[in-house]
Amino acid sequence: MVMASLEQAANLYPIPPGLAIDYGTAGFRAEASTLPSTVFRTGVLAALRSRQTGAVTGLVITASHNPEGDNGIKVADPNGGMLLRDWEAAATALANAPTSEALAEAVQQLAVREGIPAQAPSGTVLLARDTRPSGPALAHAATQGIAAVGATVEDRGVLTTPQLHWMVRATNRAEAATEQDYFRTLAAGFRELLLLAGAGRPPLAPLLVDGANGVGAAKVERLGALLADTGLAFRVRNSGQPGEGRLNAGCGADFVQKEQAPPAGVTLDELRAGRGASLDGDADRVVFYHCDEEGGFKLLDGDKIAVLAAGFVNEQLQALGDEGRRWRVGVVQTAYANGAATDYLRNGLQLEVARTATGVKYLHEVAVQFDVGIYFEANGHGTVLLSAALLEWLHQQSKLEGAPERHTAVRRLLALAGTVNQAVGDALSGLLLVEAVLASRRWSTADWDALYTDLPSRQLKVTVHDRSVITTSHAETRAVTPAGLQDAIDACVAGVSQGRAFVRPSGTENVVRVYAEAAMREQAASLANEVARIVHRLAGGLGTSP
Ligand code: G16
Q1: Residue 118 pLDDT > 90, yes or no?
Q2: CA-CA distance, 342 to 11, in Å (whole number)?
Q3: Does residue 264 fall inside a structural domain?
Q4: Which intervals hold domain Alpha-D-phosphohexomutase alpha/beta/alpha (predicted)?
Q5: What range does the domain containing 413 cover?
């Protein structure tokens, strides 16, 4: 590595005065104009990670669910997952190094710590971006950072985050890894699942898809075109075309899940005729909804998707008898998981449920410890992972003669692994997963929704002077600081039937998040309000108290 050329290139991307940025829940995220230096330096980091491992890594310029004026950068590790957590501190150190000399110094320290030989192959980074106007300039900054340490960049243009992660994984497995290959793989799995659903299944109903005015809208159209002959029809709203509105504004998975309301451009009348789904700004989350019997909006969130997937997987393994039972199935959730969902998974389906902090980087790590690891955050971010050992066994079984039900179960599990992105949570594969399972079971959205009844919940955001004053423990369910906060929350929860509440600093926005659930809707709402007021009082709230 030639440090002089790194310093020279870095001089073109000075860090803004007073910048202090942290690698958060899913990479760096901030107002776009403050980001060029951070993105340049993350380009350097991704190149070094590629050089260290001898495999390609990936970068996506996106701020996902954040407003259009924000942007950010996510890093894909060689296995297609999130950046190895050991490297996050290095990413923060590089991003905050005050001068180009300090950056070169930090790069050298990282190379020594990680044993990256000076003579190692130069490295390759796959690059993509979402549709934000600030994307092209930031992608250029990333390219410059990658090139500054002698690595190669392959610019894949505008993609969803999960597409880029999928490509990184496929490239490193020497599999076909273009965007067309991605679509073909998902579509092939879905077709197989539909085929195995049998001749008697009802035709697929059209699905309203809210594209959040982001990258997912055009991609879902392409997927739909490829699957048109199956009867699957996506009716896309909030596509980002002129006149459709701004990215994530009043639409998208984050809005719909937090507000428990339909997105802009979708009416309850339309939902009476069928279900809808919302993607987020980079299409790694999806939530569903429909109109319930009382004519009200009803959300089917990531918990509901996890339960649907878990039940389906469970049924296939049970069809394999004793041999099926030796494979461990686990569901991973966060503190946001509705209490009723956890209860249904544990007591209804008799499955292992693990709990982690928020962020798919934590859930994924636990999910890979199972033979089938199912993880969905309540916000719709997740996937279903099948272990290499299980897949190998299934491939062997698929070649053997056997009872038809057994053979179907084997083929279904194999098809699932193609339909569902094995690298990371993916809204498009989530859509196909849900549609395929509902078709296989001949279920309506109402049948799916009736598996269990959500406890009413409410989420709020509180803006504080410095959100890092709040620290948590026990997978974010207990506040450690500031002093007195947890006691005050406990006192509020104590009187509430089936009450539960927690607070945590967001890792993607400059806010503190408040979650509350309770037996009754009004109780959940007033518990959330009370806790938000406590946060405002004890953690330096800005503006008027909620
Ligand atoms: C990211 C992470 C998710 C996480 C979400 C919210 O999603 O990938 O795992 O749930 O942030 O995080 P926080 O509550 O810390 O703001 P996305 O879709 O925004 O990239």
Answers
A1: no
A2: 51
A3: yes
A4: 50-96, 103-172
A5: 303-427+444-449
Q: Do 264 and 323 lie in a common domain?
A: no
The verdict on 379 and 461 lying in the same domain is no
Q: How many domains does the chain have?
A: 4
Asked if residue 476 and residue 403 are part of one domain, the reply reads no
- State mean pLDDT over 295-309: 97
396-445, pLDDT tens digit by residue? 999 998 899 999 999 999 999 999 999 999 999 999 999 999 999 999 99
Q: Are 354 and 336 found together in one domain?
A: yes
> pLDDT value at position 2?
65
For 20, the token pair is 């202090």
Helix (H), strand (E), coil (C) string for 307-336: HHHHHHHHHHHHHCHHHHHCCCEEEEECCC
Residues 403 and 370 occupy one common structural domain = yes
Q: Are residues 13 and 105 in the same domain?
A: yes
Assess whether 64 carries a catalytic annotation: yes
Residue 88 Cβ < 6 Å to ligand 1 = no
226-242 burial string, b = 16+ CB within 10 Å, else e? bbeebebebebbbbbee
Question: Are 436 and 196 in contact, with CB atoms under 8 Å apart?
Answer: no
First-residue to last-residue Cα distance in the chain? 53
Q: Which of 83, 284, 379 to mutate to test the pocket of ligand 1 (most atoms within 8 A of CB)?
A: 379
For residue 396, which of 326, 323, 314 has the smallest C-alpha distance? 323
Q: Specify whether the CB–CB gap between 220 and 234 falls below 8 A.
A: yes
The Å distance, Cα 220 to ligand 1 centre, comes to: 21
* HSE-up of residue 524 (Cα within 13 Å, Cβ side): 17
CB–CB of 303/339 below 8 Å? no
DSSP sequence for 462-491: E-BS-GGG-EEETTTTEEEESTTHHHHHHH
Query: If you measure from the C-alpha of residue 359 to the centroid of ligand 1, how many angstroms do you get, rounded to a whole number?
Result: 6
Query: By the 8 A CB rule, do 440 and 197 touch?
Result: yes
Choosing from 37, 64, 440, 457, the catalytic residue is: 64
pLDDT at 1 over 70: no
Q: What is the pLDDT of residues 282-293, one digit of tens each?
A: 999 999 999 998
- CB–CB of 208/239 below 8 Å? no
Separation between Cα atoms, residue 451 and residue 463, nearest integer Å: 36
Q: Which ligand 1 atom sits nearest the alpha carbon of residue 284?
A: 18
Beta strands 207-210 and 234-237 are parallel
In short, whether 281's Cβ falls inside 6 Å of ligand 1 is no
435 domain residue, yes or no? no
330 lines ligand 1 (CB under 6 A): no
131: tokens are: 């549709």
